[in-house]
C-alpha cells in the first residue's frame, strides 16, 4: 500500500453493461475491448455471466486467456451449476475471480426468490464455500443491498467472509440510495461486522436517480475500496456508475479523495469509442469526460477565458483522457504522411498500412465534398476501413441510386457483389431506406429482424458525415453494423450490409460447432 490508498476498479461493461437493452456485443468485440481495458490498468474485468448462454461462456473463456494484467471475473447466482460454469470458463487464467450473489432485501426475498431469511443464509454459506474450492478470490454481493435491513445485511456479510469471501460488494441495485445514506450504510457495516477487516468493501451503484457516481464516491469516504463501474455508464435501465467519471473525479479532486486507481486515463477516450461502436450506443454530446462537447467552448466569454488561460474553464486537460489537440489542419491538399501522423494523434498508431491507405482514399474523396474535416470525420473513416481490413465482407455495395420525394413511390436501384457474383435490382418502398433494404433482401434472400436503425451526425453542418447503426437479429444471434458517409442513404446500405456480413460469420461458426458436435456423437466421443 502506497501513501495513497489503492482503489480497485472493477469493470462490468461486458456483463452489466451488456444487459442494457440492445447493447449486445460479439465475442470478437469483447476481446478487442478487453485488450484496451487490460492496457488501461483496470484491476478486475467482469467478462460475463457464463451460465446464461454459450456466447457468454465463450466470451469469458476467450477474454480470460488473453489478459496480461487484469483479473478476469465471472458472475454466478448462488447455485452450484452457475459456479461450475464460472470455473470452467475461467480455469485457463493464471488468476481469476468468481463473483456470486443473492438478494437480501425483503421485497426481493419475498417476491423474487420466495425464500425465508434462513434459506437465504443457507444459500450464502453453501455458495461462497463452494466457490472457495476453485479460487481464493471470491466476491459476494447482497443484491438490492440498499433496501436490505442493516442487521440482516451485516449478518450475511459476516457469514460470507467466514466462508471465504475476500470482497464484499454492496449493490444499490435499483439506484435507490442517496450519497449521505450510502455512506452511512458503509460506515454501519464497518462498525458492526466483526470480521470486515478481512475483506475489501465494494460499491456497485446504479443510476436510476442520476446518483450512481455520487453514491460510489460517497462510499469511498466511508471505507469502500473497490468501485464497480462501466465505460460510458451503460447498464441496466439508466445504467451504472461511469468508469471515466469515477476515475477522473478521483484524479481531479485528489485533494479531497487522496486515492490511487492506477488507471492510464489517456486511454479513456479510446475505450469509450470502442464500447460505443460495439454496442451501437452513441455517447451523448454533453456526456461528462467523453462527450463530444466535454472540451468544447462556444460562448464568447468562455473562448476569451480559454485564450488567456485554459484553466479558466477546463478543470482537466483533454489530453489527460486521450482527446488529442493538434494544430494540424486536414484538408484536400494534405498528404499521406500528414494523414498518418494525424491518425497517430487520434490513437490509431497501430493500424496497418492497408487500413491507412483505405482510409486515406476515403479521406481524399470526403475532402473534395467538405469544407472542414474534423477529427470525428477521420475517426469514422478509419473505423469504416478497419471493417474492410478485417475481410468480413462477403457482400459488398457496388452502386446505389435512390429516387425520393413527393408524388411517387420512393425507389432504389442497387448493384451488389454477392460472393463474387454481380447482381442488380430495383425496388420501391415506404421511404428510401425501406427501398434500399428491400433491394438487399432481393439480391441476397435472408430472414432477419431489423431491431435498430439509428442515424447521427458525426460533425455539425449540412455537409456532415452521417454514422448509421443497424442491428439485426436471427434466432439467438444479434449483430450490429455501422458505416459513415456524407450520404445518409449510402451509409444506411453499408451499415445494413456490415451487420449482415457479421451475421454470416456467426452462421458459419454455429454450423462449424454443430458439425463438430455431430462428428463427436457419430464417433461415440
What's the arrangement of secondary structure elements?
Blueprint lengths: L4 E2 L1 E4 L15 H14 L3 E5 L5 H13 L4 E7 L2 H11 L6 E7 L2 H8 L3 H16 L5 E6 L6 H13 L4 E6 L6 H14 L7 E6 L6 H11 L3 E4 L13 H10 L6 E2 L7 H12 L20 H9 L27 H10 L7 H17 L5 H15 L5 E9 L6 E9 L2 E9 L2 H12 L5 E9 L8 E9 L2 E9 L2 H36 L2
Parallel strand pairs: 1-10, 2-3, 2-9, 3-4, 4-5, 5-6, 6-7, 7-8, 8-9
Antiparallel strand pairs: 11-12, 12-13, 14-15, 15-16
> Oligomeric state of the chains?
single chain
Number of helices: 16
The stretches of 5 or more residues where confidence is low (pLDDT under 50) are none
What average pLDDT do the residues reach? 88
Strand order of the biggest β-sheet: 2-3-4-5-6-7-8-9
The CATH topology label of the largest domain is TIM Barrel
Give the total of beta strands: 16
What is the share of helical residues? 40-55%
Q: What portion of residues belong to β-strands?
A: 15-25%
Structural class, please?
alpha/beta
How would you characterize the largest beta sheet? 8 strands, parallel, barrel
User: CA-to-CA gap between the ends?
Assistant: 51 Å
Question: What is the number of domains?
Answer: 4
CATH architectural label of the largest domain: Alpha-Beta Barrel
Q: Please tell me how large the radius of gyration is.
A: 25 Å
Overall geometric form: globular
Q: Which class of the largest domain in CATH terms?
A: Alpha Beta
Amino acid at each position: 500500500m502506497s501513501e495513497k490508498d489503492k482503489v480497485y476498479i472493477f469493470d462490468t461493461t461486458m456483463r452489466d453493461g451488456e444487459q442494457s437493452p440492445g447493447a449486445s456485443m460479439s465475442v470478437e468485440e469483447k476481446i478487442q475491448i478487453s485488450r484496451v481495458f487490460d492496457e488501461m490498468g483496470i484491476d478486475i474485468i467482469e467478462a460475463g455471466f457464463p451460465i446464461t448462454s454459450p456466447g457468454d461462456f465463450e466470451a469469458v473463456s476467450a477474454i480470460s486467456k488473453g489478459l496480461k494484467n487484469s483479473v478476469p471475473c465471472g458472475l454466478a447466482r448462488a447455485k452450484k451449476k452457475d459456479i461450475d460454469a464460472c470455473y470452467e470458463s475461467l480455469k485457463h487464467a493464471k488468476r481469476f475471480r468468481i463473483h456470486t450473489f443473492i438478494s437480501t432485501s425483503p421485497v426481493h426475498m419475498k417476491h423474487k426468490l420466495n425464500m425465508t431469511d434462513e434459506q437465504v443464509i443457507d444459500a450464502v454459506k453453501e455458495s461462497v464455500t463452494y466457490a472457495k474450492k476453485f479460487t481464493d478470490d471470491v466476491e459476494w454481493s447482497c443484491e438490492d443491498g440498499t433496501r436490505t435491513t442493516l442487521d440482516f445485511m451485516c449478518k450475511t456479510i459476516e457469514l460470507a467472509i467466514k466462508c471465504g469471501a475476500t470482497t464484499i460488494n454492496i449493490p444499490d441495485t435499483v439506484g435507490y440510495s442517496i450519497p449521505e445514506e450510502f455512506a452511512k450504510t458503509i460506515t454501519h457495516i464497518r462498525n458492526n461486522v466483526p470480521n470486515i477487516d478481512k475483506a475489501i468493501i465494494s460499491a456497485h451503484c446504479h443510476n436510476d436517480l442520476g446518483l450512481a457516481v455520487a453514491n460510489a464516491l460517497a462510499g469511498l469516504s466511508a471505507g469502500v475500496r473497490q468501485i464497480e463501474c462501466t465505460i460510458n455508464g451503460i447498464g441496466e435501465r439508466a445504467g451504472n456508475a461511469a468508469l471515466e467519471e469515477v476515475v477522473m473525479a478521483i484524479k481531479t479532486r485528489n485533494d479531497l479523495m487522496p486515492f490511487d486507481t492506477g488507471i492510464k486515463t489517456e486511454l479513456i477516450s479510446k475505450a469509450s469509442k470502442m464500447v460505443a461502436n460495439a454496442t451501437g450506443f452513441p455517447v451523448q454530446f454533453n456526456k461528462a469526460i467523453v462527450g463530444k462537447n466535454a472540451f468544447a467552448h462556444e460562448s464568447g466569454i468562455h473562448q476569451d477565458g480559454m485564450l488567456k488561460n485554459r484553466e479558466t474553464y477546463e478543470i482537466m486537460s483533454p489530453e489527460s483522457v486521450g482527446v488529442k489537440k493538434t494544430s494540424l489542419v486536414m484538408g484536400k491538399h494534405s498528404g499521406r504522411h500528414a494523414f498518418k501522423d494525424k491518425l497517430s494523434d487520434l490513437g490509431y498508431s497501430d493500424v496497418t498500412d492497408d487500413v491507412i491507405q483505405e482510409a486515406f482514399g476515403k479521406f481524399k474523396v470526403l475532402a473534395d465534398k467538405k469544407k472542414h474535416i474534423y477529427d470525428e470525420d477521420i475517426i469514422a473513416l478509419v473505423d469504416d476501413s478497419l471493417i474492410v481490413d478485417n475481410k468480413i465482407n462477403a457482400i459488398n455495395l457496388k452502386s446505389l441510386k435512390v429516387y425520393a420525394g413527393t408524388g411517387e413511390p420512393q425507389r432504389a436501384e442497387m448493384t451488389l457483389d454477392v460472393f463474387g457474383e454481380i447482381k442488380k435490382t430495383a425496388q420501391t418502398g415506404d421511404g428510401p431506406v425501406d427501398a434500399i433494404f428491400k433491394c438487399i433482401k432481393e439480391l441476397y434472400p435472408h430472414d432477419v429482424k431489423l431491431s435498430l436503425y439509428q442515424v447521427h451526425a458525426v460533425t455539425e453542418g449540412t455537409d456532415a458525415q452521417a454514422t448509421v447503426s443497424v442491428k439485426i437479429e436471427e434466432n439467438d444471434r444479434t449483430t450490429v453494423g455501422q458505416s459513415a458517409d456524407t450520404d445518409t442513404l449510402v451509409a444506411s446500405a453499408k451499415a445494413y450490409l456490415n451487420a449482415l456480413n457479421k451475421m454470416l460469420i456467426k452462421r458459419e461458426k454455429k454450423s462449424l460447432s454443430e458439425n463438430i458436435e455431430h462428428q463427436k456423437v457419430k464417433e461415440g466421443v
